[in-house]
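User: Predict structure, ligand zinc ion.
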Amino acid sequence: MLVHLGDMLRHAYSNGYAVGAFDLVSLDFLQAILAGAERQRSPVILSLAESHYGYFDPELLMPAVRLAAERSTVPVAVHLDHGSSLEAAIRGIRQGFNGVMVDASTQPLAENIARTRAVVEMARACGVPVEGELGYVAGVEGEDAERHPGEVIYTAPEEAERYVRETGVDFLAVSIGTVHGRMRGEPRLDLERLAAINGALSIPLVIHGGTGLGDDQFRRLIANGVAKINYYTALADAAGAAIRASAVVPGHRGYTDLTKGVQAAIQSEVERCIALWGGAGRAEAVLEACRPWREVEHLVLYNSTAEPSQTAAMIAEGRRVLAEIPGVREVITGTSVRAEGAYRDCWMVRFASAAVIDTYRDHPDHQAFADSHFRPVAGDRLTIDYQLGP
Ligand SMILES: [Zn+2]
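Assistant: Predicted complex:
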């Protein structure tokens, strides 16, 4: 089931293990990652990276990700990986992410702080935790590491302390020697630096570029405060190897023949990581420690006293304006199937969480719309916020 990412990572941080944040690019990845987490009875983070949006349409994939998370029996969070802007974070929360990363790590410190703080203020008003990044982990998720070259810039403990204090991020991605994509040569980790950062911050730390690290290196990272490990390249490699193996089997020509082994290959690598990082067998304890993630349906029932054409224009304006407010996932309007009776018209506005109730009510765009368009034609009305779920 879907749970608060903050609760999940605090549990990992205080119990000395790390949760895998596995980037997915297709339904094969989604099913394989969740099957691996279920088999290991482990919490898991389903992660979608903005840099992968050329490979799939997030508007299409996210409903599947949310459904898979909600019907699973292990604790799951859905995280936007490397969100590039405030707009990307707002869009991500609308699409159903309940954790977002803002990556302004290529900017100078002051600019990184300013951009990150803007995302934290918005996301906090939606109840969504934020991961920031300080320092620079070179490369891009997956196969095309050449697209973001450059030197690794290590995270400085003093700067990390200031960055977290001034931005209010819930988790911090640190740069201590890993790179995105495939490693050239043996990775060298600066564990002393990591220990100093952990000592200064005492919040869950995140490692990007986990592919290629040895078992012992992972154990040391986790012993020094790493509670979330981003992992993609090795899963993509396992999927590619499965397809190449199928391609040489005589008679295997079509898409389903070639991709048949993909899920099993990804799942096997996911399970290896979960076991190594200490998440196996923790699902029940994590479910107990985490608040379930619950959306809220903001229901407004009324009788429009305007002409039908005026009502239609008012609804069109409201749907346009209200859907843009951070934390609003969906705006639905309807009319009663009966012509007679009270409350013939309705609005159903889906909020990402209960935190959005106040944010929405006080938002200037909502107030302007309500004052100028809605309230004048909807005198008699009922407004109720329902928390959804059992
Ligand atoms: Zn990353």
